[in-house]
Amino acid sequence: MNSPRAEIVSTGTELLQGLYTDRNACALASRLDALGFRAVYTHAARDCPGEIEALLAAAARRADVIVMTGGLGPTVDDCNRDVIARLWEAPARLDATAERMMRERFESR
């Protein structure tokens, strides 16, 4: 049996400017492997909606699952949520449980 194929997409202009190392992709690849997925590609994209959309569309054609990191805020150039909603025609919605969990996590810091 073939392992399901996974692609990792990291977003953030700062990654491609060399300001930060993408440690998330490395950790995600290791975790995916432990869960039985075969990570076949890892990508980074600038905070540019068109580039992110093209990358996700290509990844969706090749992989069984896409794991994405970065680009969820709080800066104005973070656009992942909107790109995903548009690409998969799934309007963003507030999940009260997820919001509560995030608030609790950040308040505990």
Please describe what this structure looks like:
Helices cover 46% and strands 18% of the residues. The chain has helices spanning 13-16, 23-34, 49-62, 80-87, 96-107; strands spanning 5-11, 38-45, 65-69. Strands 2-1-3 form a three-stranded parallel β-sheet, with helices on both faces.
Briefly note the structural class of the backbone: alpha/beta
Shape label: globular
Which strand order do you get reading across the main beta sheet? 2-1-3
- Over all CA atoms, what is the radius of gyration? 15 Å
The pLDDT mean sits at: 92
Order of helices and strands: EHHEHEHH
Tell me the β content: 15-25%
Number of helices: 5
Biggest sheet layout: 3 strands, parallel
Detail the poorly predicted runs.
none
As a percent range, the share of helical residues equals: 40-55%
Q: Count all strands and give the number.
A: 3
Distance between the termini: 44 Å
Write the layout of secondary structure elements.
Blueprint: E1 5-11, H1 13-16, H2 23-34, E2 38-45, H3 49-62, E3 65-69, H4 80-87, H5 96-107
Parallel strand pairs: 1-2, 1-3
Helix pairs in contact: 3-4
Keywords:
5 helices, 109 residues, 18% strand, globular, alpha/beta
Q: Outline of this structure?
A:
The chain is an alpha/beta fold and 109 residues long.
